[in-house]
Design brief:
Layout (H helix, E strand, L loop, with lengths): L5 H24 L3 H20 L5 H27 L5 H31 L3
Helix pairs in contact: 1-2, 1-4, 2-3, 3-4
């Protein structure tokens, strides 16, 4: 069994929800451009978190987690755009919005803690 941590689990669950969200948009709304954007960025969050687990250094870890954070912010933008344009319901979009907000909060905390530990271990 693979040992995972809460951020990995939440990012994976979010990615599965994004896949469902995008499938529905593509199937029912025939909207392919925005759905592919949110699919790409939304699944990239977890992929970068996974990559960070194999970082070669603390700086590499921080870099990978920072990329994941950027993808989370981009995903949040696409979800808001899809919601506000009426492509998908407010209810479904808001669930994903809340999930990505939680990922953003967790990533910010991880990055801040990692930077603090990196710079204070050198003193």
């Amino acid at each position: 069994m693979v040992t995972r941590n809460p951020i990995q689990d939440k990012a994976y669950e979010f990615a599965l929800n994004i896949v469902d969200y995008c499938r529905k948009i593509m199937r029912e709304e025939k909207e392919y451009v925005l759905s592919k954007q949110v699919l790409r960025s939304g699944t990239s969050i977890g992929a970068n978190i996974e990559e960070a687990q194999q970082a070669e250094s603390k700086k590499d870890f921080i870099s990978k987690m920072s990329i994941s954070l950027k993808e989370a912010y981009e995903t949040r933008y696409w979800i808001i755009l899809i919601r506000d344009s009426g492509i998908e319901t407010e209810e479904k979009s808001n669930v994903l919005f809340n999930q990505v907000q939680e990922l953003i909060r967790m990533l910010v905390a991880i990055i801040k803690t990692s930077k603090f530990n990196l710079y204070n271990s050198k003193k």
